[in-house]
Amino acid sequence: MISWVANDNLQTPHGGELIKGESCAPSSSSFTSVDLIPVDSLSPLQRNFFSKMYPSVSSGSMDHSQLQTGLLCLEADSQRTQYPYVTGTSVIAITYKDGILMAADMGGSYGSTLRYKSVERMKAVGKHSILGGSGEISDFQEILRVLDELILYDNMWDDGNTLGPKEVHNYLTRLMYNRRNKFNPLWNSVVLGGVKNGQKYLGMVNMIGVHYEDNHVATGFGNHLARPILRDEWHENLTFEEGVKLLEKCMRVLLYRDRSAVNKLQIAKITEEGVTISPPYSLKTYWEFSAFKNPTVGAEGSW
Amino acid sequence: MTKHQANWSPYDFNGGTCVAIAGADYCVIAADTRMSTGYSILTRDYSKICKLADKCVMASSGFQADVRALQKLLEARHLTYQHQHNKQMTCPAMAQLLSNTLYYKRFFPYYSFNVLGGLDDKGKGCVFTYDAVGSYERVGYSSQGSGAKLIMPFLDNQLKSPSPLLLPAQDAVTPLTEAEAVDLVKTAFASATERDIYTGDKLEIVVLNAEGDRREYMNLRKD
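Above: the input entities. Below: the C-alpha cells describing the complete assembly.
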C-alpha cells in the first residue's frame, strides 16, 4: 500500500491547479493559474485571521505573488474537509422481495460527544431512490443539495425521463472520486438504494470513490458487526416484516457494541410505489445480564 | 497529548489477483471476484475483468476507484477510436494506449495492477503485463495483484517459457491447449486462495479465441 503525503506545491498533470498542503509559507514557485478570492468576500472571522497572518496585505503593501500565495493558502485551509466534525455512524441496507429496506440511527457525534440526536440520515432522491449517509453530516447534506439540483435540472427537460437509482449511484461515484482527486473529499460513506422498472438496486460509495453493489451493504461498524448477520440470514425472498426484523436485529447489535450508536432510528422502504421513511422509534434492549451489571466479577485485581 | 483525529489517504488497496495466459490461437484471462479493504471483505462478487475491445480484455487489481476510472477512460478512448477508424482496436494498440494512460498520471498514479490479454492481428494469443505507472512488456503469461507472488513462480515452473534473453527471440506463447490452460489457471487460483487473504470467493475466467469469447466461473474458498 502506498502512503501518500500531500506535497506543498503539487502540480496536477491536468494543468495548472495547485494543491497546498500543511505549510502556509509563501513559496517562490511560479503559478500558472490560481483561483483568487477577493478579500471582500471573506467573512469577518476569516479577514481577522488573515490580517493577523499577513498584516501587510490588508494594508496593501504586499506584492502580487505574496498575495496570491497567502490567499491560496487561506482558501485551501478554510475550505477543505481534512477531518470530520459532526459524524453519523453506520447505515445498513438490504434488498427484499419488493424493493430496498434501509436503516440508520439519528445520532450526530461531535468527536465522542453525542451532539445531535435527531439527524435524518436517510432521504429520498428523485422518485426511485433513497440515500443513506454516514460520516460528516454537513458533507452529507451538501451531497443531498447537489443531488436535488441534479434531479431538478433533469426534470426541466420535461421529457418524461427520470433518473433511476443506477444513474444516481453512478453520479455519486464520480462525484466522490472527483473530490478525492482534488484532495478535497466529501467525508462520507453513502448507501444508495432504489427500484425502477421492477429492477432493484443497492450500492454504496465511500469518500475516496470505492464503490460496489450487493444484496446487503453496511457502512463503518456495520460492515464488521451487521454484515456477518446479513450474510447468514439474508435471502432473496424476504418479506417486508422479515426484512425489518433482520435490520432491527443488526441495529440492536450495533446499539450494544458501537458506542456512537443511539437508540433512536428510522427505517426507510422503497418499492415500485415509492419511498416511505418511518418516524423515529427505539428498540427494546436488555441490560440485565450479570456481566453487564458487574463486569469485573472474577477479574482479579480489577476494580 | 497529541491530537487524535481521523485522517485520510487518497488511496486504498482492495486486493485481487489477475492471471493471463497466451496460447497459439487463444488467450485465457482470469481474476477472482473478492473486493476487500484491510481485513474486511466489502463484497464477494465484483468483476475485475473488463472487455475493452472484441479481442482485448483487461484484468485489474489494486485500488478499485482508480481501476474503475481507468476502465471508463479506456472505454471512452476506444469509442472515439471506433468512430475515427471504423474498426476495433487491436490488442497491441490497446496495450500501448494503456501504458500511455498510466504514465500520464505518473506523479499521481492510478494505483492499479493490470494484465491485458487478447489476440493480435494474426490471431495469436498475446499477454501484456504492467506496473502502476505504465512500464509494460509483451509476455507469454503473467500474473498481477496480491496473489501474483504465489502464482507467478508456479506458472514459471509449469509453463517453462523460453528465456527472453535468447537470440534469436523465441516465441513466448505457451504450448498448452486451451483446456489445459484453463485447468492450470483454476489450479493456480485454488492454491493462491489458500494463502492470500485478498484472493477468494469466486474465479472468473474469460477465454478468447477465433470463435469469440466465453466466460467460466469457479467457486473459491470464502474464508
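Note for the figure: The longest strand of chain B covers residues 112-119.
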